[in-house]
């Protein structure tokens, strides 16, 4: 049996709880420091509370400690690791090898962050050898590449399936640091790939002007979960630790349903990595959630149109074309959408996205303050569905653990044994003092009905009842008390959670020379790599700021995106250049590897 995990993001502990309620098997969240999203920090106490909530369902909490650690931060990082272990955290998501040493003996699993840039079997084997029980792969991989890595290691494989895409191989993007001094490896990415650039050829001719040339669409592998599972992925990760609760609830619900459908299709082959079932909630709709357009990227080993250079943010669903503009608002020619009061809309004005809200939606008429730049013929998009948002907010799902019960009646004694779906067992035996029931069959029906209810987060199924002779009379309150007592007894036991894989250290040699891309930032890193044979180690880019360094490498190729690839029969001279705020970036194209690099020019 292979256990499959849906891993959800959380900016806050409350969002983490919402993700659990919607069916997530695990949540990843940042602590107060050293997370790769500095704007998404949480206190250790909040994480402790989230862990307690998640563990009721056998769900797990992973905390990101995935920045590079500077020398003067080692002690603070060590203290945080110990505090997180004490809070009940199940695993740490790590980039810097120094954190592995800090976490040794805490009982927490160690997961190699996507910031480790794992995209080959050789790199995967080396990373696993450091002591990681799980490796999070680079997103720009094909199924065949994922499968090859799976065959090379015994560690669990985690893979992103939804959300924003970094254009660079993760962990080796230094563009933000170069342009703004804000390092992605320090949790301060300025999202320079979403910025606008001019594209120039070697002669200075402008090929494109003011476009988000490095911005990619968002990932969406909702319909590829079976392919990924077959390739060896056990954890399906949703990006979005800066996203809202409504985003997380919508996306998690969609993937929870898809994962359940996969398991139902393959009985005995797969099972979920946590317990409980989701009741209620709203039918998910990924088109109504923030996205830059969707792509499956390189999952099939093929190139497509991956860029969102025209719209590097959320434009929304097409709503219709403006037919006329009145003093009170806008009239559309037609629309396939059910428009409602409070909907948000956007349109392109030149290279800018202009947004506004409709106070009233009356059929095709939108009553609102008409924004500047809107014209007859403008194409409108809805980026906020007020009706959908209200349904999300008003219909929070409930997650319940199933409890199977057996009732045995003997004289005036009622004995109830219970087994939760994770295997915990509880039993209650009480004496009823009211004598026999006048109507035996009706009393048995009352017993079944009162036991088969909800207590806390437990959903009790109708019991199997064994009764001989007379049945004692029992009030509903008496029977409800039995059910609540069982729930309390179950709560007092630790859930039989599916264990996470703990890594083991092995002697895999490091390369003799490590470039700045290894992100070596402290003496502990140096000692770890030196013990494995590394003789020369460059400082991380954030420390060295090497002149002329390659600051980005990617499967994404500007020439291919623009139809200028030699494989498309074109012969556009290279290199090309990006210009932003007076800084020039050189684009080189490595056709043998089918990769593009970005180099900082002095």
Describe the model.
- With 602 residues, this protein is α/β, with parallel strands linked by helices.
- α1 runs parallel beside α2.
- Helices cover 25% and strands 28% of the residues.
- It has an 8-stranded parallel barrel with strand order 1-2-3-4-5-6-7-11, surrounded by 7 helices. Strands 13, 22, 23, 24, 25, 26 and 27 form a 7-stranded mixed β-sheet that branches. A 7-stranded antiparallel β-sheet has the order 18-17-21-15-16-20-19.
- It contains 15 helices and 33 strands.
- A hairpin with a 3-residue loop joins β15 and β16 (329-332).
Compact overview of the structure:
This protein is of the alpha/beta class and 602 residues long.
Topology summary:
Layout: E1 2-10, H1 13-21, E2 26-30, H2 44-55, E3 60-65, H3 74-86, E4 91-94, H4 97-103, E5 109-112, H5 121-129, E6 134-136, H6 143-152, E7 156-163, H7 175-180, E8 197-200, E9 206-211, E10 218-220, H8 225-231, E11 235-238, H9 245-265, E12 270-272, E13 277-279, E14 294-295, E15 317-325, E16 329-332, E17 344-349, E18 352-357, E19 360-362, E20 365-367, E21 379-384, H10 386-394, E22 398-410, E23 413-420, E24 425-431, H11 440-451, E25 454-455, E26 458-460, E27 464-467, H12 476-491, E28 513-514, H13 523-531, E29 536-537, H14 541-544, E30 550-554, H15 558-561, E31 576-580, E32 583-590, E33 595-600
Parallel strand pairs: 1-2, 1-11, 1-12, 2-3, 3-4, 4-5, 5-6, 6-7, 7-11, 10-14, 22-26, 22-27, 28-29
Antiparallel strand pairs: 7-10, 8-9, 8-31, 13-22, 15-16, 15-21, 16-20, 17-18, 17-21, 19-20, 22-23, 23-24, 25-26, 30-33, 31-32, 32-33
Helix pairs in contact: 1-2, 1-9, 3-4, 5-6, 6-8, 11-12
């Amino acid at each position: 049996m292979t256990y499959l995990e849906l891993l959800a993001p959380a900016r806050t502990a409350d969002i983490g709880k919402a993700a659990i309620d919607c069916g997530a098997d695990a949540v990843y969240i940042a602590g107060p420091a050293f997370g790769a999203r500095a704007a998404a920090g949480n206190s250790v106490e909040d994480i402790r509370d989230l862990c307690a909530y998640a563990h009721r369902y056998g769900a797990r909490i992973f905390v990101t400690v995935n920045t590079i650690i500077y020398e003067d931060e080692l002690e603070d990082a060590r203290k945080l690791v110990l505090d997180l272990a004490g809070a009940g955290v199940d695993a740490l998501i790590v980039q810097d090898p120094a954190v592995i040493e800090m976490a040794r003996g805490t009982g927490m699993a160690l997961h190699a962050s996507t910031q480790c840039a794992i995209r080959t079997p050789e790199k995967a084997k080396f990373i696993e050898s450091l002591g990681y029980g799980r490796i999070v792969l680079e997103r720009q991989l094909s199924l065949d590449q994922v499968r090859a890595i799976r065959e090379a290691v015994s560690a669990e494989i985690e893979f992103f399936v939804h959300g924003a895409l970094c254009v660079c191989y993760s962990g080796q993007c230094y563009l933000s640091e170069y342009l703004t001094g804000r390092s992605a490896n320090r949790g301060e990415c300025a999202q320079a790939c979403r910025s606008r650039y001019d594209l120039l050829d070697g002669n200075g001719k402008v090929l494109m002007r003011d476009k988000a040339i490095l911005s990619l669409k968002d990932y969406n592998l909702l319909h590829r979960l079976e392919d990924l599972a077959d390739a060896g992925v056990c954890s399906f990760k949703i990006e979005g630790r800066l996203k809202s609760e409504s985003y997380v609830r919508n996306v998690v619900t969609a993937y929870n349903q898809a994962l359940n459908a996969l398991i139902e299709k393959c009985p005995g082959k797969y099972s979920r990595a946590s317990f409980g079932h989701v009741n209620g909630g709203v039918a998910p709709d990924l088109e109504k959630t923030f996205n830059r357009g969707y792509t499956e990227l390189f999952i099939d080993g093929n190139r497509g149109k991956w860029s969102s250079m025209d719209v590097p943010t959320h434009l929304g669903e097409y709503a219709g074309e403006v037919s006329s503009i009145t003093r009170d608002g806008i009239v559309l020619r037609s629309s396939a959408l059910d428009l409602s009061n409070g909907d948000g809309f956007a349109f392109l004005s030149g290279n800018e996205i202009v947004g506004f809200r409709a106070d009233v939606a009356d059929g095709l008429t939108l009553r609102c303050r008409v924004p500047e730049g809107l014209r007859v013929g403008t194409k409108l998009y809805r980026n906020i569905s007020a009706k959908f948002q209200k349904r999300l907010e008003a219909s929070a799902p409930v997650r319940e653990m199933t409890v199977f019960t057996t009732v045995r009646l003997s004289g005036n004694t009622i004995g109830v044994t219970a087994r939760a779906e994770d295997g915990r067992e509880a039993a209650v035996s009480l004496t009823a003092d009211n004598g026999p029931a006048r109507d035996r069959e009706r009393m048995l029906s009352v017993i079944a009905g009162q036991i088969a209810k909800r207590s806390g987060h437990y959903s009790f199924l109708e019991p199997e009842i064994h009764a001989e002779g007379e049945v004692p009379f029992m009030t509903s309150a008496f029977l409800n008390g039995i059910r609540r007592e069982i729930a309390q007894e179950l709560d007092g036991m630790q859930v039989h959670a599916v264990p996470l894989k703990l890594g083991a250290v092995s002697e895999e040699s490091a390369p003799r020379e490590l470039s700045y891309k290894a992100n070596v930032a402290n003496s502990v890193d140096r000692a770890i790599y030196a013990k494995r044979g590394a003789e020369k180690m460059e400082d991380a880019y954030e420390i060295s700021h090497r002149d002329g360094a390659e600051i980005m490498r990617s499967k994404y190729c500007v020439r291919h995106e623009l139809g200028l690839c030699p494989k498309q029969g074109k012969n556009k001279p290279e290199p090309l250049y990006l210009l932003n705020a007076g800084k020039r970036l050189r684009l080189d194209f490595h056709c043998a590897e089918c990769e593009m690099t970005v180099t900082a020019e002095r």
